[in-house]
Amino acid sequence: MAFNVVDGWTVPGFTHDRELGGGASGRVMLATDDLTSTKVAIKYLDGALAGDEAFLVRYRASARSLSQIEDPNVVDLYDFVEAPDGAAIVMQYAEGVSLRRVLAAQGPSGPLAALSMLGGTLLGLAAAHDQDVVHGALRPANILVDADGNARLTDFATAPAGTEAQSAPPYAAPELWDGAPATVATDLYAATAVFYECLTGRPPYAGRNMARLHREAPVPAEEVPGPLRNLIHKGLAKDPAQRPRSVADFLGALEDAAVSAYGPSWEAQGRGRLTELAAQAAAYPEPPKPKPARASGRNPIVAGKQSGGGGSRGRWVLAGVAVLVVAGAGASAMTLLRGDDKPPPDPAPAQSSTPQPSLPVGGVDPAPLVAQIDQAVNQAPGALFSYRQSGCCGFPATAKGTFGLAQGGEASYSLTLAGTGSARKPVRAFIVQDRLYVRVGRQWKASALGGRGYPAAADQVRQGSSVGNLTALLRSATKLTKGESTETGTIYEGEAPAAKLAEAPGIGPVYAQMAQATGAQQLAFAIKVDPGYRPTAFWVRAGAEDGRNQTMRGSYSKWGRKPPIQAPRTA
Questions:
Q1: Which residue positions in the chain have pLDDT lower than 70?
Q2: 425 labeled part of a ligand binding site
Q3: 110: burial class by Cβ within 10 Å (0-12, 13-18, 19+)?
């Protein structure tokens, strides 16, 4: 069977290997990144979901938040891809089996394994809740048990709003049946229902009228071991106000109950038992998919199989790629660039007592400053640099290395590069003209800048770190002030309209993206130049300092003529 396309298309830059599974919400494929040979799992959403604009608007926001989660109990989300032919979720390819498969093959897990599973599930939920994302339809099918006994969650927020109860009827809190939105409290209810199934081999409620049972039936806590009944009562409380207020509260109650009943080594014993059960379940055939519940009269939207099924399980962690937290609430751009806590100096007086009307607010004429920067850089066309972009609602990128300016052309770079998603792992790279060269094993692979993954991150870095970006900010400024000059240089602080920056040649796309993501009409910036007018640092923010924003910042050092940066030989 050919797997080159799903529903007539393939996410660009990936080649399908085989199908991992699927359900009513879509099919999951094992795929290979064509540039880096990395294995990923791609979930192609069912056409009904891909065509549901309300769902897509909601999921876009969730995907941006989920892509920034680095947690051992969450399957990494790399990218959410929308195309004319459909929509797909690119995620980590993680090894393991679903909890649904474990329970179908083995039955009840025993209390220690059940406690370990609940603890891992709650930790995964906590990581998502910290990003303001709730799962909405948690069930055993989207809890993956890996080779080390970790419970790892996937398929966050894939149930359209209002359908969460029908998506996972045995685990749906009473308020979901009444049309209430999914919340932290409904996630805790679902996690407890899954915990109950691990203990007893069946969900807490089953029958023709699931809504009534969840609303009215007594909590069946007598079916579980005595020391754990209080956890069941708390988590399955009919009133969400009676459930634990947060995941942290529930974890505290779990720890107290587990230590009291089974001793301080409960977690190691439980993880070991869960690992054994998962290994045994992997030898059994995949169980048949559950039949749709008859309670709602609607077809449930069941998330596809988790992104497990064999392969590399290494996590790609880069400390510097996480969301940049702007230092010090209320700190000005000048404070950030100085790197100290002193208050910023007062702006220098206007350069003329009667400034021309065309000058920006603040009285600094950018034209001579731009000319001095261009002249200084032309005399020393190369430097060491660092760059980082991050924020509330975009995909971060980070890079450091060396660049050299070619006469009349784009800068070429030798750098270490990382972004987000499948480009999260830092790689050695070159940017020469409009091509990116990435080292994969012992070979170099080339691709055009732009698109997704590393080529997208490279294009973002090239635009944002360019000297042309800084001079475009100055030329576009509607406000520009000059700070006090010191031995290390001078800081110029200002504002520029996003619409004008979006039209700037070479750097417009990065500003169009920042403005669209944040809704900002003006961008704040600061640029520091040394006494010879060579840039040494810059900072740009779209959006409010203490609200929804994106930020990019960079630094330069050791300006001078650098050896020519040449493209490596490709395979």
A1: 1-3, 285-357, 393-395, 407-409, 571
A2: no
A3: middle
Q: Are 359 and 517 contacting, i.e. CB atoms less than 8 angstroms apart?
A: no
In this structure, are 304 and 431 located in the same domain? no
**Same-domain status, 132 and 254:** yes
Q: Which helix (H) or strand (E) holds 490?
A: strand 490-497
Flag whether 4 is in a domain: no
Quote the pTM value: 0.69
- Write the DSSP assignment of 141-201 as a string of letters: GGEEE-TT--EEE--TT-SPTT-HHHHSGGG--HHHHTTPPP-HHHHHHHHHHHHHHHHHS
pLDDT at residue number 142:
93
- DSSP string for 327-394: SSTT--HHHHHHTS-SPPPPPPPPSSSS--TTSPBTS--HHHHHHHHHHHHHHS-EEEEEEEEEESSS
Domain membership of residue 234 as a residue range: 92-315
Residue 62 belongs to a domain: no
Whether 63 maps to a domain, the answer reads: no
Q: What is the pLDDT of residue 302?
A: 31
- Is 51 within a domain? no
Closest CA to 74 of 181, 176, 152, 179: 152
Per the structure, how many domains does the chain have?
A: 2
CATH number at residue 404: 2.50.20.20
pLDDT at 288: 60
Tell me which of 315, 336, 371 is where a domain ends: 315
Do residues 400 and 263 both lie within one domain? no
Closest to 433 (Cα-Cα) out of 571, 562, 564: 564
d(CA 312, CA 92): 9
Give 378-422 pLDDT, tens digit per residue.
999 899 999 998 887 666 889 999 999 876 567 899 999 988 777
381 and 266 share a domain?
A: no
Spatial CA neighbour of 400 closest among 554, 213, 189: 554
Between the CA of residue 547 and those of 62, 413, 555, what are the distances in Å?
Answer: 17, 33, 25
SS3 523: strand
Residue 287 CA to residue 437 CA, distance in Å, equals 44
Kindly report the CATH number assigned to the domain that includes residue 102. Answer: 1.10.510.10
Q: How far apart are CA 332 and CA 81, in angstroms?
A: 36
Burial annotation 412-444 (CB, 10 A radius, 16+ → b, else e): bbbbebbbbbbbbbbbebbbbeebbbbeeeeeb
**pLDDT number for residue 571:** 67
- 454-465 and 508-518 helices, crossing angle to 10°: 100
